[in-house]
Amino acid sequence: MFWPKYNITDRMNSARLEIERARGFLEAADLREEWLDEMRIEALVREAHFSTHIEGTTLTLDQADGILRGECIPNVARDDRQELLNYREAMDYVSRQIGSRVEMTEDIIKEIHAILVKDVRGGSLEPGNYREVPNYIVDAITGKAIYTPPPASEVPGQMGEFVEWLNKRTGVSAVLTAGIAQFQFVQIHPFLDGNGRTARVLCTLILYKNGYDFQRLFSLSEYYDEERQDYYNAIQGVREAGLDLTGWLEYFTEGLQSQLMGLKVMGELAIKEDAVMGRARKFMLNDRQLMILRLIVDDGQASVEEACERFDLVRRTVQRDFARMVELGLVEEVAHSKTDPTKHYRLA
């Protein structure tokens, strides 16, 4: 029977506390549907891009965004495009599981893998089928093997034990379960290829099924890809520690915390912007003035010069706009120093 080994540390508890705070905020916040829809699209783009980028695709984030929004992007490798589209399909599959009480099964995991590697590399990756040959993981820099997964003959048994644990875990939080599952899946490495992507999608699925979908606005893979060596080191560190997951779970929970705290800040900013812009419309500000006000909301403060440069406006016109917003009590002048005499304005 699979049973993970780890200790609960102060670092984990601190990260989980912030995760719960962000979860509570996102569940209670009055966020506009238009904002949520756009942010979900952006989160999906970032997750699909960074997760496939970890595995070797060469697309830029802008190219990935264009492809997933249906644009024709030239000079893109076919497999890179297909892996990205497959990842979106897998995330759509996962999103449909939100609120589902259906137990985790090997068939669900196989379905995720089948979606992820569909029509990639000439269909040679045996979508949804456990490997029947040995596999090994190499260091991307040195090319040397750093880990040899279990023999193919042991994969079905280990996957069965793993899925049984997922369904019968007792007293393990959903966040730690997701982190444990991500590592253990990579450790078993049940498929010929696509194991990393499948592990990250599986991790997301576990969070979603347990009420931790965070409005589908986060991307853990972005955190992994930013400092990819830290990601690899955290995984390899478990093997070097005799399969003690403590270090990996600290890394995992702090990564999720980092993503969600940034998301919380953006949500707070969106609520603030809605409140300010709603009040501004009552004063019948024109579109240009609303545009300048939005700049102040987004950047925290702005000057006449910045507004002129950003929107290609006439200085005298912008000065009058700022003067009117000050008069209405929407913005106020920021005290400036002798070294920087430029007038800046912030929300009143």
Write the H/E string, N to C.
HHHHHEEHHHHHHHEHHEE
Largest sheet: 3 strands, antiparallel
Question: Quaternary arrangement of the chains shown?
Answer: single chain
Q: Quick check: average pLDDT?
A: 91
Give the fraction of residues assigned to helices.
Answer: 55-70%
Low-confidence stretches: none
Task: Tell how many strands the DSSP assignment holds.
Answer: 5
Strand order of the largest sheet: 3-5-4
Number of helices: 14
Number of domains: 2
Q: Specify the CATH architecture of the largest domain.
A: Orthogonal Bundle
CATH topology of the largest domain, by name, is Fic-like fold
What is the top-level CATH class of the largest domain? Mainly Alpha
* Derived structural class: mainly alpha
**How much strand?**
under 5%
Structure description:
Helix content is 61%, strand content 4%. The mean pLDDT is 91. The longest helix has 37 residues, at 246-282. By secondary structure, it is mainly alpha-helical. The radius of gyration is 24 Å and the shape is elongated. It folds into two domains: 10-266, Fido-like domain (Fic-like fold, Orthogonal Bundle), CATH 1.10.3290; 283-347, Winged helix-like DNA-binding domain superfamily/Winged helix DNA-binding domain (Arc Repressor Mutant, subunit A), CATH 1.10.10.10. It has helices spanning 10-28, 33-54, 61-68, 78-95, 106-117, 155-168, 174-188, 195-209, 220-226, 228-240, 246-282, 287-299, 304-311, 315-327; strands at 137-138, 145-147, 302-303, 331-334, 344-347. It is built from 14 helices and five strands.
